[in-house]
Amino acid sequence: MIEVFFQFDFLRNALFSGILVGIIAPMIGVFLVVKRMSLIADALSHITLTGIAFHLLLASFFVSLAPFDPIYMGVVFAILGAIFIDKLRKVYEHFKELSIPIILSLGIGVGVIFISMANGFNTDLFAYLFGSIAAVGQNDLLVIMVVSIFTVISLILFYKEWFFLAFDSEQAQTSGISKNWLDLIFTIIVALVIAAAIRIVGILLISALMTLPVSAAIQWSKSFKQMFIYSIIFGELSVLIGLFLGYHLNLAPGGVIVVVGGLFLFGSILAKKILNKYNISFKGVKTSKAE
Length: 291
Fold this sequence. Notes:
By secondary structure, the chain is an all-alpha fold. The protein has helices at 9-34, 40-61, 71-91, 99-117, 123-130, 138-167, 169-174, 179-201, 206-218, 224-248, 253-277.
């Protein structure tokens, strides 16, 4: 019954957007997990919500802004949040993890204020929070395509540098790699991916799409590159199955996608334990080199 997704424009947009998001979110998530920065996705998603709420607030005062998609303001806030996190990591050099809860807390606080000033929650904001198939328009697909192209190109250009920084930051800097600029570019890309994926997965659930497929992939990967491949496979399956079930069961796709991703994760853990129980050799991910 997948044919139904090609009969209507909004379903087709959701399908193509989901395919792209299923690639770039786990792909970036691999680096987030390895760098132990998974929570940054939560922080930037809440900053994105703040930008969306700010647009809705402005639109309530200036009617001329109403036709514009709030996601653009969300992208601006996400990028600013990424830059702010990077600056805070330099301020708290020995406590870099503090930058994430600071931005997360501010994002929630300021976002709630904007939402309350804009007369509370409405249907549009609910769709941003949890994702909505019907909300994915042509402009959203275009934004996701641009972000996907930019993300893939950046990954191709900076893969070796990001890999080196992820596993041995000090040695990478000693080798002449510009850590500050590369970290900033990576954080901005994370912000863009989050903003692009909001329509499909939702603000409150996007971090799960960046971590659950990677967590499942770790159970089967024998190298860093294999972790990329398996993460994308699990991510794509989660998105496609989630979209299909979400549409036919009339459920928010974001929640279904995350539940499917969780099932893949727990299924992988269970399968790994069964293999170990019967002494079937299957080594975990090797983090010492990229094959």
